[in-house]
Specification:
With 897 residues, this protein is α+β, with helices and mostly antiparallel strands. Helix 6 packs parallel to helix 7, helix 8 runs parallel beside helix 9 and helix 13 runs parallel beside helix 14. 17% of the residues lie in helices and 32% in strands. The termini are far apart. It is built from 15 helices and 48 strands. It folds into five domains: 184 residues, Galactose-binding domain-like (Jelly Rolls), CATH 2.60.120.260; 110 residues, Immunoglobulins (Immunoglobulin-like, Sandwich), CATH 2.60.40; 127 residues, TIM Barrel (Alpha-Beta Barrel), CATH 3.20.20; 285 residues, Immunoglobulin-like; 94 residues, Immunoglobulin-like (Sandwich), CATH 2.60.40. The strands form twelve sheets. It has a seven-stranded parallel β-sheet, covered by helices on one side. The structure holds 2-acetamido-2-deoxy-beta-D-glucopyranose (NAG) (9 copies). The site of one 2-acetamido-2-deoxy-beta-D-glucopyranose (NAG) has 10 residues, from loops.
Length: 897
């Protein structure tokens, strides 16, 4: 009895609190998201949305997701039914029962409003995967023809339905990637068992007076020079909700987020009954603070506000937008390749392809870390291929200065054109009238959401295949309506184009699987780094350490990595794709480095392969920016852009990423990072040329002289060559400064090559070490496939397995948010490929963190100092430094300053 009574009391109390907490909006101009959901399968609670949304209901037995947005599996993780770590472990995901997700589910939420006469209420969606019926208080708000498409956001008038106590119920229908315009994964990873079905984006409730505003659009017009006042145009559509004319005062304000001059303008407008009109404001911003990509400058942001008041001073609605003053344009150059200009400066895109979490669980803190890593690597762009995520993603990119190339995803329903040969092998029906309408609405919603964000570089309306003329025209019309003033590009490939967009100027010729480092600089081949390459890589991204693998693999799974080189692995790409094994990669690893003798040996060899692969790709694209002499098939011009495939993984994967799922940077990260330095010196495996590159906006006059020191060592540590050369650097420049053909022609052994670039004062700008086999890998270009080019003879690095051990000493001091590591090689041979890791007192890796460089090679008697830094705002308690190289190993305790 007592227990029952206290439970009842608790229930009453929690309902009381619920009542108080759940008042979503109470004033005109306010918008609030539905903060939490109860959810249940229709197999359990039936299909009667009218009933489920009508009254009080005991939802005790439902699942409770304390978040505003989640896919079905995402919600069940939030509700602690599933544990993501466990789902991601080994092949546990395979064991989830798909049948559970083949029926519709109900999302339900109760909330309080304060409806009063003259006040209007709206329910706003931003995309539900992939169809939904929406009911409020027993009445239909929308059905599955109206709320269809993962990116379709609509505003529904619910004024006549709202009460003080409200019940919202949304029935979501199972998503089919072949039939729905949803978010699919193609071959990236296994598909989530629910196909991402659910309320994956926020649902909002908005309250207004008699006039409601559509989102505020902001269009800045930058002048040349950039110091001229900038005209900023503010635009919005107004709707009079009443059946009488209404006169309103619109007040627009613009100011720097950090303060300063506030520009205010007012307009009096009379809107006829039940009608809509557009409102425009123009403002000239004096002394404009220009927004730059991170590597070129600061990221000042402005805020624009628009407030609509009735003549008695009551606020009717309010809208605001954060924006930056920057311009983006895009042209086809003389070679028909896309080249972007940011603030009128030619902008070589050096980027990578992004994936969200497999269950679309967006974590702003993780995204911020990912951006900080990407900036640390020297990337300036991230491609979002149909994974356009949430406004928060753009806000964070705006603040950190990373450009985003948004767009629609490849394949599946999105590219169901009768001229797409993939259609023949997938059960995807071509578009119906309804699909065209959904695509149009999707484009409008997304471009409207993105339009003010300075981080957005453009929108690709096709990926592998270009949309047909009807779809292209709908996409372009939607973008125009949204005042999306950024480049809209027809596709990410050169397979064809719509007459309305013209050629994309982007190529998509692969590779996606392993190719040797000379692939990228062999002149006049498919591989030559040239033009704008929209997605490509040697496919690497092996997690860098045992501690990573242990988080998601069993001992047997780990054994498979080195004992079963050709096996299909669940943590590679989706089963059935060419990328579900590591066969091409492993064939190269075995041939080039010798069969691994243990898992540790495999991981070491894999990191050598990964570092070499990413460095070669990034260096080649940077080197070929501005080189008219490069000749390649398909694109004969300078390398104007490159999107590395890929940035990150949707879950703990074994390839296609620059760091592992737990944010451990490995070989692929540090190879790319070496190549990402502002000023850099690089070697071409194929041509034996030494290249220098500089992506600074300016080099002070009189400080352009540079020096390169070249040295070559045998595996025994004997110096085989030493020389220097001098040259003059320039901003926005790359060029060939020297040939080592003669020097290396005399060498028929495995050697190390060290390049050191210094400025006039002798300061090291870049130090770059290669290990070179007696002969380079031989590619069989004729046999190239869409995802790789086979190798007929592999380079032989096995001499490096027999390096003499190197004795090193290390000194490491913690100083604030950095650890300073001084390492010295006392041996007569190089200390080869030393990976430094920081661990805490529990032996766990300290993450996330950045290193100046890692996988470091030291010449005999060489001494280097490196810094590891904490990634902003994180707790930082390293106690130990572990150093593991190919011929050396050491663990030391850190000193405190
Ligand atoms: C999920 O499982 C892992 C490993 O079993 C555990 O460490 C973690 O705490 C669990 N997470 C939650 C939210 O319960
Ligand atoms: C949804 O509602 C619209 C308009 O009321 C109607 O034309 C359409 O047939 C409905 N669709 C479904 C699937 O019920
Ligand atoms: C997911 O999509 C695939 C292909 O479109 C389909 O075969 C499968 O049944 C879908 N699964 C669910 C749970 O809807
Ligand atoms: C915009 O509106 C917000 C909230 O009403 C206010 O805090 C801010 O000062 C306004 N900013 C400008 C530039 O008017
Ligand atoms: C303005 O607000 C007051 C107080 O809420 C209300 O009495 C009045 O009717 C409102 N005026 C209009 C034009 O809505
Ligand atoms: C670029 O495209 C145009 C029109 O499609 C064509 O006439 C021209 O020859 C092309 N230029 C090059 C360098 O391929
Ligand atoms: C794996 O496949 C390669 C060809 O790609 C073959 O040469 C090798 O023998 C196979 N290894 C095993 C262990 O099956
Ligand atoms: C920068 O380099 C690109 C590529 O070579 C070239 O097109 C552009 O004209 C250069 N711009 C300046 C300002 O030097
Ligand atoms: C390297 O070349 C030299 C002279 O050209 C020759 O004597 C030597 O045997 C060669 N070594 C190898 C490993 O082929």
């Amino acid at each position: 009895m007592k227990t029952a009574r206290s439970t009842a009391l608790l229930l009453l109390l929690s309902q009381l609190f619920l009542h108080v907490d759940a008042t979503l909006v109470s004033k005109a101009g306010q918008v609030a998201v539905i903060p939490t959901w109860d959810l249940q399968s229709t197999a359990v609670v039936g299909n009667d949305l009218g009933k489920l949304s009508r009254d009080r209901l005991d939802t005790e037995s439902w699942y409770h997701a304390p978040v505003s947005k989640c896919t079905l599996i995402g919600c069940l993780i939030e509700a602690k039914v599933y544990n993501e770590t466990e789902l991601f472990f080994s092949d546990n995901l395979r064991k989830l029962d798909e049948n559970k997700f083949l029926v519709p589910w109900i999302y339900r939420s109760e909330f309080t409003l304060q409806p009063t006469p003259g006040q209007h209420f709206f329910l706003q969606t931003n995309g539900i995967s992939s169809r939904a019926d929406i009911y409020l208080n027993g009445k239909k708000v929308a059905n599955s023809s109206e709320q269809a498409g993962s990116y379709v956001g609509r505003r529904y008038d619910i004024t006549d339905i709202v009460r003080t106590e409200n019940v919202l119920a949304i029935k979501v229908y199972p998503t089919d990637y072949y039939r729905d315009l949803a978010l699919g994964w193609v071959d990236w990873n296994p598909w989530p068992t629910d196909n991402g079905t659910g309320v994956w984006r926020d649902v909002e409730i908005k309250q207004t007076g008699p006039v409601v505003l559509d989102p505020l659009r902001v269009v800045p017009y930058l002048g040349a020079p950039l110091t001229l006042p900038v005209k900023v145009s503010l635009r919005a559509r107004l709707h009079n909700l009443e059946d009488r004319a209404i006169t309103i005062e619109a007040v627009a304000q613009v100011a720097l987020e950090s303060g300063g001059t506030k520009y205010t303008r007012r307009q009096l407008i009379t809107i006829p009954p039940k009608s809509s009109l557009d409102i425009f404001f123009e403002e000239f911003i004096e002394n404009p603070q220009i927004w730059w990509p991170r590597q070129w400058g600061d990221q000042p942001l402005y805020i624009a506000n628009l407030t609509i008041q009735t003549i008695d001073g009551n606020i009717s609605d309010h809208a605001s937008a954060t924006f930056g003053l920057r311009s983006v344009t895009r042209q086809l150059n003389a070679h028909n390749d896309t080249i972007f200009f940011v603030n009128n400066r030619p902008f070589q895109v050096i980027g990578a392809g992004y994936t969200p979490n497999m269950f679309l669980r967006f974590d702003p803190a993780k995204w911020e870390t990912e951006l900080r890593y990407a900036l640390d690597l020297g990337l300036n762009t991230i491609r979002l291929e149909g994974k356009n995520e949430h406004p928060e993603l753009y806000n964070i990119a705006d603040r950190l200065g990373m450009m985003l190339l948004a767009g629609w995803e490849c394949c599946d329903k999105w590219e169901a054109w009768d001229y797409n040969p993939d259609l023949a092998v997938s059960p995807t029906p071509v578009w119906t009238d309804e699909d065209y309408a959904i695509a149009h609405e999707s484009m409008f919603h997304e471009t409207l959401m993105m339009q003010a964000h300075p981080s957005v570089l453009g929108f690709l309306i096709g990926s592998d295949y270009w949309p047909d003329e009807r779809a292209t025209s709908l996409y372009l019309e939607a973008a125009r309506k949204a005042d999306f003033q950024l480049p809209v590009i027809g596709a990410a490939s050169k397979r064809g184009f719509s007459m309305q967009t013209g050629p994309s100027g982007m190529r998509m010729d692969g590779p996606y699987d392993w190719v040797p480092p000379n692939y990228w600089t062999t002149p006049d081949t498919l591989g030559t780094a040239a033009g704008f390459a929209s997605e490509l890589s040697a496919g690497v991204g092996t997690p860098g350490s045992l501690s990573s693998l242990e988080q998601f693999l069993t001992a047997d799974d780990m054994d498979d990595l080195w004992r079963q080189p050709n096996k299909s692995l669940f943590h590679m790409s989706r089963a059935g794709s060419p990328f579900d094994t590591r066969e091409i990669y492993n064939a190269a690893l075995w041939a080039r480095w010798g069969a691994p003798t243990s898992l540790d040996d495999y991981l070491m060899k894999a990191q050598l392969m990964d570092y070499e692969a990413t460095r070669a790709q990034f260096e080649a694209f940077r080197a070929h920016w501005g080189d008219g002499r490069v000749l390649a098939q398909g694109s004969k011009g300078p390398a104007t852009g490159m999107i590395y495939w890929m940035l990150n993984n949707a879950w703990p994967g074994l390839h296609w990423s620059l760091w592992d799922y737990y944010m451990r940077p490995g070989g692929s990260y540090f190879g790319a990072k070496v190549a990402g330095r502002e000023e850099h010196v690089a070697f071409s495996y194929a041509t034996k040329d030494v290249w220098a590159m500089n992506r600074a906006l300016e080099v002070p006059i009189g400080q352009e002289k540079r020096r390169i020191e070249v040295s070559v060592l045998g595996v025994d540590g004997k110096e085989m060559f030493k020389g220097t050369s001098v040259f003059t650097t320039k901003p926005n420049w790359s060029g060939r400064v020297e040939s080592l053909r003669e020097v290396l022609g005399k060498v028929n052994d495995t050697v190390f090559l060290r390049l050191i670039l210094t400025d006039e004062k002798g300061k090291t700008l870049s130090r770059n070490i290669y290990w070179l086999a007696p002969e380079i890998d031989v590619l069989d270009w004729e046999q190239s496939d869409w995802y790789f080019t086979p190798v007929t003879k592999y380079a032989d690095f096995t001499a490096l397995n027999k390096l003499e051990p190197a004795d090193i000493t290390i000194d490491a001091v913690v100083d604030g948010d950095g650890v300073f590591v001084t390492v010295e090689n006392h041996a007569m041979v190089p200390a080869f490929f030393i990976k430094f890791d920081l661990v805490d007192e529990h032996g766990r890796d300290v993450l996330p963190l950045t290193w100046d460089e890692n996988y470091v090679t030291l010449w005999p008697k060489e001494k280097l100092t490196l810094r590891a830094g904490v990634v902003q705002g994180r707790k930082w308690e390293p106690v130990q430094l572990k150093a593991v190289g190919k011929n050396t190993e050491k663990t030391i305790r850190l000193k405190r300053k």
